[in-house]
Amino acid sequence: MSNGLVFNETLHPGVQVSYTCDEILYQEKTEHQDLVLFSNPVFGKILMLDGVTQVTTRDEFIYHEMMSHVPIIAHGAAKSVLIVGGGDCGLAEEVLKHASVESLVQVEIDKSVVDFSEEHFADFNKGVLENPRFELVIEDGLKFAAETDRRFDVVIVDSTDPHGPGAVLFSEEFYRDIHRILTPGGVLVTQNGVPFLQRDELVTSVERFSRIFSDAAAYIAAIPTYFGGHMTLGWASDNVDLRKQAASILEERFKAAGFDTRYYTPDVHAASFALPKFILDAVEEGRAKA
Ligand code: SAM
Predict the structure, then answer these.
(1) What pLDDT, on the 0 to 100 scale, is given for residue 1?
(2) CB 72 within 8 A of CB 153
(3) Is pLDDT at 3 greater than 90 in this prediction?
């Protein structure tokens, strides 16, 4: 039963998405951001950082499956994976389903997000922190990417939006460092907003990718709590064929991976790169500006 409280998402000026609150489960002003976790009758537990919805127990599977399985199955031989951000550890749980992944490093700036997620998001991150293949680094992703001498086949930036601590993870400097730490033919995937409301964010990311990588693109997924229609996931690689794998190859690899999903299928993977015209136009504008 609602306690009368309502939380408003304030990401998009002029639009507010309101969630009734049954119970505030955790609230903290961390060193980096305002954090609130509350329960809602429709979406279950909802995490907001600085007033922006990050993840909910009801629809996290869509986002976490599409951010992990698309690049790893497209790559086909990913052994070392890096997650930047991803504090709720739901993405890490999906990556670790791939037995072929020998090591997963997660670089998260805010320890508080990981700490409370272990308790409150066990529905979807169970066992991650104890997994011997998993290594958590509490650091700014920009600093880690600039300084590490480690190399990764897949890098997934599961960041907040380009405000506050997340802003640096949309910079050309950061993307250049990611290019440096990717193995040849590796791939970068980024949380790149809802283009119907955040078009410039996508254009700018693709423009920056295009100056650094041979292939700059995006793919889409529909996440109910990311208000405004399709969400885009940025894609950057020097292997221009990586996002054009035949459905038969994706099918074969997914079958070999041997786990169930609730959103991802090889057909959804292939189709996710077919962009609605207004999103494709934004991607092409970014490529042209490079
Ligand atoms: N699914 C969400 C979305 O699409 O907006 C993102 C989820 S996850 C909670 C975002 C994470 O990025 C947070 O845990 C936040 O602390 C982390 N983060 C923000 N800026 C960061 C930075 N510079 N380095 C590392 N992690 C960062």
Answers:
(1) 63
(2) no
(3) no
H-helix or E-strand spanning residue 169: none
Catalytic residue status for 158: yes
Residue ranges around ligand 1 (CB below 6 Å): 49, 54-55, 63, 84-88, 107-110, 113, 140-142, 158-161, 165-166, 168-169, 191
The Cα 247–Cα 143 span in angstroms is 37
Instruction: Give the tens place of pLDDT for each residue, 35-71.
Output: 999 999 999 999 999 999 999 999 999 999 999 999 9
Output the average pLDDT for the chain.
96
| pTM, to two decimals | 0.97
Alpha carbon of 256 to ligand 1 centroid (Å): 31
Name the pairing type of β-strands 103-108 and 80-85: parallel
241 and 120 within one domain = yes
Mutate-to-test residue for ligand 1 from 47, 93, 117, 159, highest number of ligand atoms within 8 A of CB: 159
One domain for residues 27 and 68: no
Range of the domain at 213: 60-289
How far is the C-alpha of 135 from the C-alpha of 140, rounded, in Å? 15
